[in-house]
Design a protein that fits this description.
The protein is of the alpha+beta class. The chain is built from seven helices and 17 strands. It has helices at about 15-25, 60-70, 75-85, 100-110, 190-200, 225-230, 255-260; strands spanning about 5-10, 35, 40, 45, 50-60, 90-95, 120-125, 130-140, 150-160, 175-185, 205, 210-215, 215-220, 240-250, 270, 275, 285-290. This is Glyoxalase-like domain-containing protein.
């Protein structure tokens, strides 16, 4: 069984302009805004390893609500997340796929289907001015016990433009994802879910489980472990299965620190990591390590 790569992470934000400003101050190169045909838009951050961040904003509430009522799971889950947890956070892990239709059948058979698949397209413009209509097919997975987190596979039917290299170079020296950290009251309760989504076995680590892929690991840890690792009060870590942090792989942590300091971004050093607390446009705690 070959592990699925993390394709991207969905980070709900209240405002794309604020997200662009915040992510730029963290030293990331942010792509031009991209509009979806169902009332949401993004401003992505692409990495050398092929993964990316998708800060996601609702730009047309009426259109988004209408599509959610018609069964668009992507929008429905996003609006539900915002309704429960506010407009900022990390709501979904997305895995790469060569056959989303087959993934949907697999999720149904495994009892984790999050709803009907979705196919759509959106215009994507490269730094060189090339524009294509990228097309995607999504298959959704969800746990009944995890209202504030879901996953989906993403098949790129028509991929991004070829000349995207400039967007994958970041002043903060980040080359890709290292860890996506989720809090759970019972990490072992999510083993079957992540086994089926990531196609990777859960490995015991201190305080929980880790599921390794080529584009980063998903770590599902008890609340107490997350509080310990990131210097947070236990009561500050959400209950249930909730994404709490993203750790990035920096090629040079000294450069990362210099960029953060130059842009007046507050950070702390802890156990070989540089940590930046959540802020509007960022959503969750960000960490950087070599």
């Amino acid at each position: 069984m070959t592990a699925r790569n993390i394709d991207h992470l969905v980070l709900p934000v209240g405002n794309l302009g604020k997200a662009r400003e915040r992510l730029s101050s963290l030293g990331f190169t942010v792509a031009p805004d991209g509009a979806h045909p169902f009332g949401t838009a993004n401003a992505c951050v692409f990495f050398e390893d092929g993964a990316y961040l998708e800060p996601l904003a609702v730009v047309d509430r009426r259109k988004a609500g209408g599509h959610a009522k018609k069964g668009n799971v992507f929008v429905e889950r996003d609006l539900e997340y915002r309704g429960r947890r506010g407009r900022e956070g990390l709501s979904a892990i997305v895995v790469s796929s060569e056959d989303a239709s087959n993934d949907h059948r697999h999720y149904v058979a495994a009892g984790i289907s999050g709803g009907e698949p979705l196919e759509f397209g959106r215009a994507v413009k490269s730094p060189g001015g090339d524009e294509v209509e990228a097309r995607f097919q999504l298959a959704f997975a969800a746990m009944d016990s995890a209202a504030d987190f879901f996953a989906f596979s993403c098949q790129r039917l028509v991929s991004f433009p070829q000349d995207m290299a400039e967007l994958r170079v970041h002043a903060n020296s980040v080359a890709g994802l290292k860890d996506v950290v989720l809090a759970s009251d019972d990490p072992h309760a999510s083993v079957a879910f992540f086994d089926n989504v990531l196609r990777a076995p859960g490995v015991e680590v201190e305080g929980g489980l880790a599921f390794q892929t080529e584009t980063g690991a998903v770590r599902v840890l008890r609340r107490e472990q997350i509080a310990h690792d990131f210097g947070l009060p236990v009561e500050g870590v959400a209950a249930g299965l909730v994404a709490e942090a993203v750790i990035f792989r920096s090629l040079d942590l000294a450069v990362t620190e210099i960029i953060l300091a130059a842009n007046d971004v507050a950070f702390i050093r802890r156990d070989g990591r540089v940590l930046v607390s959540p802020s509007p446009g960022q959503g969750v705690l960000f960490g950087f390590e070599e």
